[in-house]
Amino acid sequence: MKKFFKIAVFVLIISCSVVFTGCKRQKDNIEEFGQGLSNYYMDIQYDDNNKSLYAEQTVEYVNNSNALLSEVYFHLYVANFCKDAKNFPVEDMYKAKAYPNGESYASLNIIRVKLNDKDIMPIYEGDDNDFMRIELTDKLEPTQSVEIYIEYSITIPNVSHRFGYTDKGVNLANFYPIACVYDENGWSKNPYHFNGDPFYSDMANYYVNFTCSSDFIGAFTGGAEEVVDGNTKYYTINSLCIREFSAMLSKNFKTITKNDGDVKYTYYYLNDDTPEKALQCAIDSINTFSDLFYPYPYNYYNVVQASFLYGGMEYPMLSLISDEVENYDDYLNVIVHETAHQWWYSLVGSDEYSNPWLDESLTEFSTLLFYNYNDGYNLNYTDMLNAMHENYNLFVSVYQDVLGSVDTSLNNRSISEYNTSPEYTYCVYVKGTLMFDSLYQLVGKNQFIKSLKLYAETYAYQISTPDGLIACFEKATKTNLQNFFNSWLTDKVIMY
Ligand SMILES: [Zn+2]
Fold first, then answer.
1. pLDDT, tens digit, for every residue of 109-128?
2. 221, 366, 393, 459: which has the fewest Cβ within 10 Å?
3. How far is the CA of 200 from the centre of ligand 1 (A)?
4. Residues with a beta carbon under 5 angstroms from ion ligand 1
5. For residue 342, what are the CA distances in angstroms to 9, 131, 172, 287?
């Protein structure tokens, strides 16, 4: 995600030479990498009159852990958008912006659940009944699968969020039951939180039929086939190797499309006088990060301008950009940031709830790095970094003056352990970026890029950890970096 935080940036265009290290890796065959993953088959109908969804979903869940599983857990994030949810999605300071027509809530009705074609009663857990536990009849061996059918209906709240509708369109993310991750700590059951991106998911294959009225234009995680029959539009989306599925709908989307390399880029927008610039920014970002880190493995990339209370949000093959980002340089910067998440969150997964810095700080640093390889944009690395230094120092001094102390630790600090949204932003986005800049200066550009190539290569389609990232930097640079990372990641306030 990209939060709004103001950085005074002086306009100075520096010309940069493009130096890429290492030999080029071939683009992955995504069908090959999708073998052995869980499969989601979803039939979804959107009813605009009632602002509701009806869905039938069959999950062929594959046990890709080494453990014997006696249950499978699903997140029900919609439960957090329901009235009186304890893990509610919008903090007080954002409520007026998020709910322009007053607070509005979702409803979720799980109609029927079947395990291997037999009706079962799931067990609901969590503060908001936001987890669904499916007890398995027989223990599930590694690499074996079970089939779980879930029929459900949802009403969508009137909120400018990842999941919600406004008069501009409908954002459908985190709306369907998605399997929790089973990792070395067992089932990960962290709830929704208004800070950051409280998500954590495995790669899976999605086969989705999506129906809506024909006056809507839909943007999805991946390419979509479209058939119109009378007043009804039928979309088919088959996206392999993605961490989650999302759909953005609007009656007002205009589109601009361009093929570059083997990627089809589409920009869905509501208001933009220079849509070709936004589209080119997406192309430049995908190409730059493909060269620097790992070849973008998909054939589609969609940038979608929609109503959203923060700056933007990342999904596989789809970046949601708020239509309320006022300055166009900032707007393009959000596109760069969300596109960097295609590597740090999407390709390389991580537990974003427990260690938000791992994807977010690296994404924000990658955003700055983009400008070192692309002149012609009105932002640059040095000015953005200097502004971050100033902002961070100001944040630390204000917190120390007002509260007497400040906790700027990053590692193993979950998003729920940041007291306020600004505290989260200045630690995870700003301090995290300063850390990666310091490392960039310490090991040098070539070693730094080599390390990130190794990191992407090691964890592509997998789940990374802080130790995994550090190990890749140490291996690539042949340098002991434990002290470096410890000093930045633990609660040692670093002033400049
Ligand atoms: Zn982000």
1. 999 999 999 999 999 999 99
2. 393
3. 14
4. 1, 363
5. 25, 27, 19, 12
